[in-house]
Design brief:
The protein is an alpha/beta fold. The chain has helices at residues 37-47, 62-73, 123-127, 144-157, 176-189, 197-204, 209-220, 258-273, 282-299, 312-322; strands spanning 5-10, 14-22, 28-35, 52-59, 76-84, 91-96, 102-107, 129-135, 161-165, 192-196, 224-228, 234-238, 241-245. It contains ten helices and 13 strands. The strands form two sheets. The protein has a nine-stranded mixed sheet with strand order 5-4-1-8-9-10-11-12-13, with helices on both faces. It has a four-stranded mixed sheet with strand order 3-2-6-7.
């Protein structure tokens, strides 16, 4: 098998309208930024010098064309990007609080991202990749739910490393019990899981990170678990080993995309190490998490998701400044 891509991600790509100050008339201004967690992860890897591809659906409109151009400019393969003739590109308006933490309002009834059909998925791209990455946002509605599940199944059956980030957005689910069910289904395919503290507690009803992680590990047996704790850093678990590393102290302006930058950092390290999971050591994990924490922290220092994703040089420079 000829491997062409280090990573392929599947799921939503959309427009994030990010707060950008106040107009002369005193009204809020929004900046049009490319976003969507799986697309962000593909770009994160590409910015670190890896070969990445994206599979998803956008509208045949100015926003969709802008998103394709963005991926192409950032060296992400768009052979799996489909244009919908009937449905517009999905839009998300990002609202930031005084600490830079964000919430979302979605325009998606429907949006093109959920209209991806299984027959439109480019399985050749998946087969020719080392990592398949996805999240739960593409599992909220049909037909993209089936397209996502079948693609994850295909990746698993073809020996890819499968990585999953629940990326829970409650506003996109009509039933949070269904969200739990779909996220658990997604985790069942995963070798590498990145999950936030809130998502972990939502899924397990645990009130302790280690307890919740062990519950998921016992149920699903994924190889690497990373629980992101925002500005507090990251808890990790592999096998019987657990640990914690703090985030970097940076000037945070917008946390959009920080988790995706972290995920990109982890997957970059997985690709670089080229080890089987039973060969990982605590030193390996600390190195991986430290690198990912640097990537995630840097992504909070600029507005938007994709525009804020750091290069490999940026990450190495921040890590060097800490030492």
């Amino acid at each position: 098998m000829w491997i062409m891509y280090d990573l392929v991600s599947l799921g939503e790509m959309l427009i994030d309208f990010t707060p950008a100050g106040i107009s002369e008339n005193g009204n809020p201004l929004f900046e049009c930024n490319p976003g969507g967690a799986p697309a962000n992860v593909a770009v994160a890897l590409a910015k670190m010098g890896k070969k990445a591809a994206f599979i998803g659906k956008v509208g045949n409109d100015q926003f969709g064309l802008f998103l394709k151009e963005t991926l192409m400019r950032l060296n992400v393969d768009t052979g799996g990007l489909i244009f919908s003739r009937d449905v517009n590109t999905t839009l998300a308006f990002v609202h930031l609080d005084e600490r830079g933490d964000r919430s979302f309002s979605f325009y998606r009834k429907p949006g093109a991202d959920i209209m991806l059909e299984e027959k439109e998925v480019n399985y050749d791209i998946i087969r020719n990749s080392r990592i398949f990455h996805f999240g739960s946002v593409s599992m909220t509605n049909q037909p993209s739910r089936d397209a996502t599940i079948k693609s994850a199944e295909y990746a698993r059956n073809n020996g890819l490393i499968v990585s999953f980030d629940p990326n829970l957005r409650p506003a996109l689910w009509t039933d949070l019990n269904e969200a739990k069910e779909m996220i658990r289904l997604g985790i069942g395919f995963a070798d590498v899981l990145k999950i936030s503290e809130e998502e972990l507690f939502f899924l397990t009803d645990a009130r302790d990170i280690e307890e919740g992680s062990k519950m998921l590990y016992k149920e699903h047996g994924m190889k690497l678990i990373f629980v992101t704790l925002g500005p507090k850093g990251c808890f990790y678990m592999f096998g019987d080993h657990t640990g914690y590393l703090p985030a970097y102290d940076v000037n945070t302006v917008d946390t959009t995309g920080a988790g995706d930058a972290f995920m990109g950092g982890i997957l970059y390290q997985v690709l670089e190490k080229r080890k089987s999971y039973d060969e990982y050591t605590v030193d390996d994990m600390e190195e991986m998490v430290n690198f990912a924490n640097a990537a995630g922290s840097l992504a909070t220092t600029k507005r938007g998701a994709i525009p804020a994703l750091p290069s490999l040089d940026d990450v190495v420079k921040l890590m060097g400044a800490k030492n």
